Amino acid sequence: MKMQILAVALFLLFLLNTNSDVRAECPIMCSCSERHRTVDCSWRGFRHLPLGLQRNIQSLNLTHNRLSDLDHQLSSFTHLRILDISYNRLLHFPASLPRSLWEINVSGNRLHLLNKDDTAYQWNLRVLDLSVNKLERVVFINNTLPNLQALNLSHNKFWTVPTNMPKNLEMVDLSHNTLVQILPGSLTRLTRLARFYLHANRFTMVSEGAFEHLQGLKLITLGDNPWACEEAANISHLLSWSKQTTAQVLGCPCHTWHTCGEAQTSNTGSRHFDAFTLSPFFFGTEKPSHHFVEAVTTHFWSGTSLLNTRGDQTGYRTMEEQESSLLTLTPEVLHSSSDGLTTLSTTLRTSTLRTRSVKRPNQKLNRDVSSGQTAKSELSFLFCCTFLLMAITNSL
């Protein structure tokens, strides 16, 4: 008899363990998936990490809140794959983030520096978005971030291309900075780089051979830079490379060849602010090999950095204003010009930028449905326990 009672007790403990994740509750003011592995706490005005987050969550969206410090607060979430903490009030990269992460979005904060220790142990990271900050310098350690494929550093304050970037990168966006030079050896390791966005900077020239190691390059954007076209000795090697490369070049320096892209030379005297008019995807370039790279290249840059954005810069707003809306360019219609080249008409519009955190009108409904399913599971569990206890009592 004792053996039967022990067996029943062990069975009840097993049921309790297997149903613990079902009975887990979603944090207050957040919406969760059915099993609470995907949690959306965006646009809630949180100043601190919300209470009640389960340790086994895989995706956490905290975008558009008022978080100023997340140091050492997420290290115990060892199953976390996707973390979106964009558009908060962070002054530095959060310390001790879990090493299980595949994607980190810290855009739209107030970061000035990325230290070498911030990403030293992120072996699994594939996408890192640091755009729309105040970064002037990022430091990477050799042989770290081995799986990183997409790095977004656009809309910051870099004056030189970062050195020692992870060698397996397939996409780098450095557009909308104040870049003036590429130091020798900065790009030597990036043999897999396929997409390189350098438009809307302050380049007047680049050193000879700056791009020669980019063997996998398929697309590069050079428009909206003040190229010193009158200085033939300094610009001729770049013009020659632009003509000979097999990669698509959007915004060809000095508007020399149509094959470089649909350029529109501004009337700026001897210095040319060349711009392009088509998004790379309109040119039939191949999509990134990894879906994470595609996700990054389409959610933020589709309207602001892939199209000509000189008009966008004039309407560029402060960090606080960007939390509500951004000025974007929207492609409306493709048409053919008289010379047979394809051009793109664009119109300006103001749209709300909600990175992976679009408010859903049925968030309360999702929460109610999840709570109802949890309640049903709990009732079934209690019924089962009651039935087994009655059986034990009868046997005694």
Strands, helices and their partners?
Elements: H1 2-18, E1 31-32, E2 38-40, E3 59-61, E4 82-84, E5 103-105, E6 113-114, E7 127-129, E8 137-138, E9 150-152, E10 171-173, E11 195-197, E12 219-221, E13 226-228, H2 232-244, E14 248-250, E15 271-273, H3 291-299, H4 301-304, H5 310-314, H6 319-322, E16 326-336, E17 342-351, H7 363-395
Describe it for me?
A hairpin with a 5-residue loop joins strand 1 and strand 2. Helix 1 (2-18) runs antiparallel to helix 7 (363-395). The protein is elongated and about 100 Å long. Helix content is 21%, strand content 16%. An 11-stranded mixed β-sheet has the order 1-2-3-4-5-7-9-10-11-12-14. The chain has 7 helices and 17 strands. Mean pLDDT is 75; it is low at 18-23, 261-270 and 275-371. It has helices at 2-18, 232-244, 291-299, 301-304, 310-314, 319-322, 363-395; strands spanning 31-32, 38-40, 59-61, 82-84, 103-105, 113-114, 127-129, 137-138, 150-152, 171-173, 195-197, 219-221, 226-228, 248-250, 271-273, 326-336, 342-351. By secondary structure, it is α/β, with parallel strands linked by helices. The termini are close together. The longest helix is centred in the C-terminal third of the chain and has 33 residues, at 363-395. The protein has 2 domains: 1-29 and 361-396; 43-358, Ribonuclease Inhibitor (Leucine-rich repeat, LRR (right-handed beta-alpha superhelix)), CATH 3.80.10. This is LRRNT domain-containing protein. Residues 1-24 form the signal peptide. Residues 25-59 form the LRRNT domain. Pfam families: LRR_1, LRR_8. One of its GO terms (biological process) is neuron projection regeneration.
